[in-house]
Each structure stands twice: as C-alpha cells, then as structure tokens.
Automatic annotation (TrEMBL):
One of its GO terms (cellular component) is cytoplasm. GO terms for biological process: negative regulation of cell population proliferation. Belongs to the BTG family. Gene3D superfamilies: Anti-proliferative protein, N-terminal domain. Residues 96-115 form the Anti-proliferative protein domain. This is BTG1 protein. PROSITE patterns: BTG_2 (PS01203). It holds the Pfam family BTG. InterPro entries: Anti_prolifrtn, BTG, BTG-like_sf.
C-alpha cells in the first residue's frame, strides 16, 4: 500500500472488522481459527471496497457507500467474508444482530444496533490540521443527519440578528 487515497484507512478498517468478529465470537459456535480468517477476509474486502471512496479531507464524503449494514439483508462484505469460512447467510443472521449499522469513516468508526439504538463510537481520532471548518464538515455525516432528523421534529436554529 503506497500513499494516496486509502493508504491510511487501516486503523478504521481493522477496528470495524474486529468489532464484527467480536460479535461473532460472543454469539459462540465459531472457532478461533475461523474467526481469524473471517476478520482477515473482511478487512481485505473492506479495503478493496473503500479504496476509491476514502476522503480524509472530507470524511463524510462517501459515508453511505462505506456504511456496513445488516437489515434483514446481509451486508455483502460480511457475507463474502463469512462465505470464506463456510458460514451461510442464515447462520450469520442467527449469530449477528438482525439490525446493525456500522459507519466506517476517516477518523471515526461507529455503530448502531437496532434501528432506534443509540450510536456508539468505536474509534475516533483527531483530524490532522483539524480546522473548525473541517470539524463542522465531519459533524454533518450520515449519523448526524439521522440523529437530527429523528430526534427533533421542530428544528430550531439560532438566528443572529444584526440591529442597525
């Protein structure tokens, strides 16, 4: 892996893959060797899937594309990795939450279990040269829009009035 897009998404990807692997381990019935292989396959699949969709300067860009989702349908990346160790989709549905959303963005990996669950951050790192504009930019990722859209039906904006 050289420099350029996707060069430094290893931490985010390994965090996400380790999380899904932990969920599988917690469910039981999958051997350690299988889990290790699953994790490696998932990391490889994610790396391949994200390599042209990773924008550290605009972390929210491509967020939907990188979002890993199980919602009565198995996420293809998880399905692919599970297939490598002989786990069927049916078995995966028994082992993993039926509704899981995992956001893998530059500088932040977070997840939600259930459609109305709270969002938990697995990994967060400060952005290099974190200017205020960038911080604001990253705050309007799909998570925030989801949260804002759901939690506050009446949007209240602080208006600045300039009196002459």
């Amino acid at each position: 892996a050289g420099s350029g897009a996707g060069a430094d998404m290893r931490t985010e990807i390994s965090t996400a893959a380790a999380f899904v692997t932990r969920l599988l381990r917690a469910a039981g019935g999958v051997g350690e060797e299988q889990l290790r292989c699953f994790r490696e396959c998932l990391q490889e699949a994610m790396h391949e899937h994200y390599k042209h969709h990773w924008f550290p300067l605009v972390p929210s860009k491509g967020s939907g594309y990188r979002c890993i989702r199980i919602n009565h349908k198995m996420d293809p990346l998880i399905g692919k990795a599970a297939g490598m160790i002989g786990l069927s989709h049916e078995r995966l549905f028994q082992l993993l939450p039926s509704e899981l959303t995992l956001w893998v963005d530059p500088f932040e990996v977070s997840y939600r279990i259930g459609e109305d669950g709270s969002i938990c951050v697995l990994y967060e790192s400060p952005q290099p040269g974190g200017k205020v504009a960038k911080q604001l930019e990253s705050r309007t990722s799909c998570k925030e829009e989801w949260r804002i859209g759901r939690s506050s039906p009446s949007k209240s904006y602080n208006m600045m009035t300039v009196s002459g």
